[in-house]
Automatic annotation (TrEMBL):
<keyword id="KW-0413">Isomerase</keyword>
<comment type="similarity">
    <text>Belongs to the hyi family.</text>
</comment>
<feature type="domain" description="Xylose isomerase-like TIM barrel">
    <location>
        <begin position="22"/>
        <end position="256"/>
    </location>
</feature>
<feature type="active site" description="Proton donor/acceptor">
    <location>
        <position position="240"/>
    </location>
</feature>
<dbReference type="InterPro" id="IPR053398">
    <property type="entry name" value="HPT_OtnI_isomerases"/>
</dbReference>
<dbReference type="InterPro" id="IPR026040">
    <property type="entry name" value="HyI-like"/>
</dbReference>
<feature type="active site" description="Proton donor/acceptor">
    <location>
        <position position="143"/>
    </location>
</feature>
<dbReference type="InterPro" id="IPR050417">
    <property type="entry name" value="Sugar_Epim/Isomerase"/>
</dbReference>
<dbReference type="GO" id="GO:0008903">
    <property type="term" value="F:hydroxypyruvate isomerase activity"/>
</dbReference>
<keyword id="KW-0670">Pyruvate</keyword>
<dbReference type="Pfam" id="PF01261">
    <property type="entry name" value="AP_endonuc_2"/>
</dbReference>
<dbReference type="InterPro" id="IPR013022">
    <property type="entry name" value="Xyl_isomerase-like_TIM-brl"/>
</dbReference>
<dbReference type="InterPro" id="IPR036237">
    <property type="entry name" value="Xyl_isomerase-like_sf"/>
</dbReference>
<dbReference type="GO" id="GO:0046487">
    <property type="term" value="P:glyoxylate metabolic process"/>
</dbReference>
<protein>
    <submittedName>
        <fullName>Hydroxypyruvate isomerase</fullName>
        <ecNumber>5.3.1.22</ecNumber>
    </submittedName>
</protein>
């Protein structure tokens, strides 16, 4: 059975952030991920990880002004220095917290001819970031995200993401395959997993269409979990979903997988 990491940005919102570590450990999680840990000091987070015997497996680099609707700056021309400062801050946290991978968000972009400039900025920034993260033994991730949730997001398709990874050619640059986003945009999940498996660096799940627990909706996740096992996936699966009514109460899907 795959290993599951609780996403502490979307799960356990019944608790203040630093209390979510203990709550998820009590539910049997051994690993966590979060989007933006930067409101809290790395030492505070390190204390919670150590206290509860947890591993942090993924964070995002800073993604611009989130409250104003920004969703990353990696593909925004003119924001290179901000992007680089954000990568360096993420490296500082990842190093202190023994977190092996960092997601680099592309951003909301223009259409038409402007897209070419955004793509070139994105590729240039990713090449720099992959080298920078590689110097610290870290993995860089990019993620196709559906335009229903994030209208105008640069990267929507799995094939686009893998083509960019192949173009850059950095061994530590991989694709974060969120099966929720992939189902909303493309579907045919099992075929896409098989096709792109070699460059998948992290997997995330949520129910479709409402992004709740993965036991509700149009995707039969047990089959996909078995497929990932059969393919030899050794990473973590991030549970990046919004619980329907209480995080712990909604973990019946996980208890069933564990045979509990």
């Amino acid at each position: 059975m795959p290993r599951f990491a609780a996403n502490l940005t979307m799960m356990y919102n019944e608790h203040p952030f630093l209390e979510r570590f203990g709550a998820c450990a009590a539910d049997g999680f051994e690993a966590v991920e979060c989007q933006f840990p930067y409101v809290h000091g790395a030492a505070e987070i390190r204390d919670e990880l150590d206290r509860h015997g947890l591993r942090l497996v993924l964070i995002n680099a800073p993604a611009g002004d989130w409250a104003a609707g920004e969703r990353g700056v990696a593909a925004l021309p003119g924001r290179r220095e901000e992007f680089r400062r954000g990568v360096d801050l993420a490296i500082e946290y990842a190093t202190a917290l023994d977190c092996p991978r960092i997601h680099l968000m592309a951003g909301i972009v223009g259409r038409g001819a402007e897209r070419v400039a955004h793509l070139e900025a994105y590729v240039d920034n990713l090449a720099w970031a992959a080298q920078r993260l590689g110097d610290h033994g870290l993995e860089a991730l990019i993620e196709p995200i559906n335009p229903r949730d994030f209208p105008g997001y640069l990267l929507n398709l799995q094939a686009e993401a893998h083509a960019i990874v192949e173009r850059i050619g950095a061994p530590n640059l991989k694709v974060q395959m969120d099966l929720y986003h992939c189902q909303v945009v493309e579907g045919d999940l099992a075929t896409r997993i098989r096709r792109h498996f070699a460059r998948i660096g992290h997997v995330q799940v949520a129910g479709v269409p409402h992004r709740h627990e993965p036991d509700l909706g149009e995707v039969h996740y047990p089959y996909l979990f078995e497929l990932l096992d059969a393919l030899g996936y050794e990473g973590w699966i991030g549970c990046e979903y919004r619980p329907r009514a209480g995080t712990s109460a909604g973990l019946g899907w996980l208890r069933a997988l564990r045979g509990g």
